[in-house]
Amino acid sequence: xxxxxxxxxxxxxxxxxxxxxxxxxxxxxxxxxxxxxxxxxxxxxxxxxxxxxxxxxxxxxxxxxxxxxxxxxxxxxxxxxxxxxxxxxxxxxxxxxxxxxxxxxxxxxxxxxxxxxxxxxxxxxxxxxxxxxxxxxxxxxxxxxxxxxxxxxxxxxxxxxxxxxxxxxxxxxxxxxxxxxxxxxxxxxxxxxxxxxxxxxxxxxxxxxxxxxxxxxxxxxxxxxxxxxxxxxxxxxxxxxxxxxxxxxxxxxxxxxxxxxxxxxxxxxxxxxxxxxxxxxxxxxxxxxxxxxxxxxxxxxxxxxxxxxxxxxxxxxxxxxxxxxxxxxxxxxxx
Length: 335
Description:
Blueprint: E1 2-11, H1 15-25, E2 31-35, H2 58-71, E3 75-78, E4 81-87, E5 90-95, E6 100-108, E7 112-115, E8 130-131, H3 134-137, E9 146-149, H4 155-163, E10 169-172, H5 181-189, E11 194-195, E12 199-204, E13 209-214, E14 219-221, E15 224-227, E16 230-233, E17 246-248, E18 251-253, E19 267-269, H6 280-307, E20 322-324
Parallel strand pairs: 1-2, 1-6, 2-3, 6-19, 8-15, 9-10, 9-15, 10-11, 16-18
Antiparallel strand pairs: 1-20, 4-5, 5-6, 7-16, 12-13, 13-14, 17-18
Helix pairs in contact: 1-2, 1-6
């Protein structure tokens, strides 16, 4: 059991967390990235809509990001945070393996969990021929027979987005209320038929979707299923600090201001944990902004400490200083 001291601990090793870490290590901050190892986009064959990296496999993108952060002296290690408490000089983070790390500031970039409807076969095909985002996957499923599975008030809008990509789109009402008269009129005008009845399962033949089976046994031929999941921020470990989560029609998120600052002083959030609809590029940009804001906040604190006569180095180059978990000692203003 070791206690490691850092200017910043980044919780989450996805696009938002790594880009935030990159900004910080380039500012000579000591940074530890704790990567839970379960990126949301792992099932996807490629990242899309990201300039100069369109189609790159998600694992390759993350490996490049980790290498860049490490190249400037940052630490990127596997780790799952189970709890966070405030200390006189920052925060203490408890990890699932029993270790403890300390930080002056925290960037939460843990992403979210997709909660899918209870339809047999849906989870197993997720990220393949069960998709959610027309901008992430739409080009890859263009011109194919698409079934949009209604899950809430945005389902008609979801169907209209996929109708831009294929002339053969059906909206399965499933357990959702029937569309309003205005929505039904738009669907009809664009040739999107409604299929009433609860969807029980996907029909799979030769490792591909061939249809959706309704509760009455009817099978409606389809090759692709589009479904908008309920998205829930991975932020349970923050409970002791008290940052409130909020809910919108898409799910549960951690509110922040425009710079990524949460209601808890010293804690920032970026990426899908706070912006449920952010694609990889937007998440990375939010991480970069949060990283810059965290560094500015630390610079201001370092200046105040210097004025007060507390020793603060001119820069805080990354280090891996560690001490005993039983006797962690004071958290230095910088490493």
